[in-house]
Each structure stands twice: as C-alpha cells, then as structure tokens.
Amino acid sequence: MPRERWASSTGFILATIGSAVGIGNIWRFPYLVGQNGGGTFLLAYLLVVAVLAVPLLILEFAIGRRYGTSVVAVFARIGRRYRWVGVAIILLVGGILSYYLVIVGWGIGFFVRSLLGAPLDFPGFVRGWEPVVSFGVALALVAGTVALGINRGIELANLLLMPLLVLLVLVLAVYGLTLSGRDAGLEFYLKPDFALLTSPATWRDALGQAFFSVGVGMGVMLTYGSYLARDTDLHTSALWVVFADTGIALLVGLMIFPMVFTFGLAPASGPELAFQTLPTAFGLLPFPQMWGALFFLLFVLAGFASAISMLETVAAPLMDGLRWKRWLAVLVVAVVVFVVGLPSALSYSPLDLRLGGDRLLDVMDDVLGNLGITVSALVGVLIMAWAASRRETVQEIDTAARWRVGRLVLSLSRSFVPAALVISLVATFLAQLS
Fold first, then answer.
1. What is the percent of the chain with per-residue pLDDT over 90, rounded to a whole number?
2. CA 181, 185, 189 angle in degrees (round to 5)?
3. What CA–CA distance (Å, rounded) separates 416 from 248?
4. 358 φ/ψ angles, rounded to the nearest 5 degrees
5. Binning pLDDT at 50, 70 and 90, where does residue 403 land?
6. Do residues 6 and 12 touch, judged by C-beta distance below 8 A?
7. Does a structural domain hold residue 1?
C-alpha cells in the first residue's frame, strides 16, 4: 500500500499550523510571559523563533521529505547507529503527549462546565475522577481522528479547526482590548526591560517555549514533512507556520493581560493562570458563562490540533517500520499513552502524586517539555546537519523554493542553533545548582 501524502499544500500548511498552535500558545506562553517580565520575555521569544526555530523547521521539513518515512527510519537511514536517537525521540513525544492530553482534558471539562453554568473551580474539578474521564475523552477524539488517516482525518480536521480557532482568538483579543486594564496590560506585555535580558532563565524559557510551540526538536515536523510532495516550497511553508503560530501567541497575550490587569490579578501566577486566575476574571465580566465557554473551546481546539500531530509521530514508526495497519498502530499507542498519562491525570487529585516535592504533571512538563525537547533538538540537529549529506540536504531545502537559502539554513543549523542549545542546557544545569 503506497504511503499517504498531503492532498494539497494548503492542507499541509493548516495541519502544520495546527500542530504548532497548541496549548503551548494558550496555556504555556502567557504564564511564561508573566513569570519572566512580560515584554522582556516576549522580545527574547521572538528573537529565538526567528534565528533558531525557523532554520530548524525548514531543515526538519527537508529531511522528512527527502527520506519520506518515520522518525526512527529517518535516523536509521542517515546512519544505523543513529536509530536509537529516533527511538528516544518517539519515547519523548509519547511522554509529552501523555500529560499534554491531560491538560487538554482539563480544557474539555471546563468547557462543559462553562456551558452548564457550573463553577469554574479548579480544586473542585481535580478532586474527583472528572480529570481522568476528560483525559480519556481527549485521547479518544485524537486517536479517532488519526485513525482516519492523513487526508480524511488529520488534514480535514485542521481545515475545519484552524479557521474557527483563529476567529475565536480574534474575538477574545478584541474584547480584551476594550477592558479598562488595557493600557497597563499592554505596557507589561509589550514593553521590555532590557536589563532583564541578561537573565539566563529568560533565554532558557524563551528557547524552550519557542521549540515547544513551533514543534521543532520532537520529530513532529520531520514526520509531517515526510508526507510532502516534491513541488512544495519549504521556505514559504515554514514562514507561514511560524507567522501563524507567533501571531496567535501574540493575540492570546492581547486577550489575557488586559483582563488580568483589569481585575487586579497576578500575571506571574504560573501554570494555573488559565484554570484558576482567568476563571476569576470571567466571573467578573458580563456574560461570564459565554466568555468562559469561548476561551476553553479555543483551548481545546488548539490542544486537539497539536495532539493529533504528536500521536501521528508516535504511530508512524509502527506503520512504516512494522507494517502495522493504521488503526492497530493508533490503538496500541492510545492504550500506552493512557496508561502512562494516568499518574499525571491524578497528580492534582487527592492522591497528590508527587516526585521530588513537585506534582508529577509539573515534573513531566519541566523534564520532557523543557529539558527533553532541548536535548532532543540538539542531538537531532547535529545528526541532520552534520551526518546527512550536505549537498543533498541543501538541494532538498531549495527544491521548488523561491529563494536559495539552503546553504544559510544548513550553516545556522550546524553552528548557531546547536551552540544556543548547549548554552541553554548549561544555563538549566546551573539554575538547578543554585
């Protein structure tokens, strides 16, 4: 059976944007902005995206299209000894997906509560089995979509989801800008304190968020690139993805920070910003039920689109390498993800599952979502940029492209990108010692 392909460039770009625009934009980005000085973090984030994430995204598209297979097989074809790197990346993505879908499930639970007019009470929500049920619902919806295939499942879902997601972001951002705390919120969000740019933590978090959000370093974009046709312009596609992902993240900030400052809430409240701080703000707005439902619908749509790409990345090696049927590969992955994710789903429950004093879900996000992605990106970019043929990689990057930037992309991927990743890892290690 021939391997599936994207039906159109538009479908591929929307699916890739959907992969990039996840709860990293709606949940993670705002609280990292709040914790790292507002505009200071935003400036660092934009620089990291432009200089590091874009070249790596183009490189992953190119390597994926060139080999036309799953992550494990790509690294094995570059060199047999690199096969373990592909396996490690798949395990990383599966681990991220296991707790990611727990958070998407929270969004589903809060969306349903908003529709029913029930209290948006996070401690009350996680006290029972509701987070486990909503985690299972989120996983079932994502698995069902991926099981339908590239065209009838992933591509079609994103063709429907992305326009609705963009519309919801615009509606909420415009409303945020009408609130009385707009000026204070915008000053905090958009005005950088250049003195804070010397903080290693700011750059470490900016790099982790940029890679988490755009989706590089996890094999996801490499997998999506493997379904590309030869006549696809990789440069233009990458720029569209980054522009849309960054634009939506910026709009989310315009939505959230005026709201936070209007009601005197804490912008640096951390991961609970979306589930404890913002529901307080919704309760003070006119038509609180409506605004809560719109926000959590946006949250779920963003998380759903991103989770689809992660599950496809983990299932692809079973289909390509072991020749499993798609439905079987998806089913096995879904069962494993549920088992691995169950402790994260219960970590905020009365069981209070912790590791080293921190809740297990937070540990998973810190270890896999920050450190894991950084290490994965470093090892992956070194192999793709140095072990693969330089000439063939440059040709692949420039195939069907308007601009000949293959040499520049490869040069950045060989030098500046890994150097920045090493610095980020050193900063993380020093922060743990202090």
1. 67
2. 170
3. 27
4. -105, 150
5. confident
6. yes
7. no
Contact 98, 124 (CB under 8 A): no
Domain containing 226 equals 9-433
Q: What are phi and psi of 323, to 5 degrees?
A: 60, 30
How many separate domains does the chain show? 1
pTM for the whole thing? 0.92
pLDDT at 338 over 80: yes
Among the residue ranges 64-78, 150-164, 256-270, the one predicted with the least confidence is 256-270
CB atoms within 10 A of CB 175: 16
According to the model, what pLDDT value does residue 348 have?
A: 86
**Bridge partners of 354?**
359
- Residue from 273, 249, 289, 307 nearest 100 by CA: 307
Kindly state the helix (H) or strand (E) to which residue 355 belongs, with its residue range: strand 354-355
What is the domain-level CATH number for residue 389? 1.10.4160.10
In a domain, 289, yes or no: yes
How far is it, in rounded angstroms, from Cα 337 to Cα 331? 10
> Does 2 reside within a domain?
no
Dig out the tokens for 344 from the structure.
């994260």
- The length of the chain in residues reads 434
**Residue found under tokens 């496809």:** 312
Tell me, yes or no, whether 367 lies in a domain.
yes
- Structure token pair of residue 158: 């994103």
